[in-house]
Amino acid sequence: MPATPLTAEVLCALERIGCPVSTPDLMRWLNRDRSTPLVIDQVYRALDALRARGEVQRLKATNNKRIRYWTIAGASAACRCGATQQGAS
Fold it and tell me: What UniProt keywords are attached to this protein's entry (predicted)?
């Protein structure tokens, strides 16, 4: 699947943030300079497409199993946010 402008933008944002981030927080980051804001479903679909290609990985918080974080695949765990890798996601 070829990269779309949104998946490329999402991947770039994750690289710039440099730490696991939730989908809503990533959406807020991406919407900072937009005239037409993205909705959460658009961001999640882009993240899911990147996950399917192996470019990002989904993490979950150790203290709240409902919260999911996203990070670049293979990124070091230098952050202290409490996220851990979620199996084969």
Answer: Plasmid
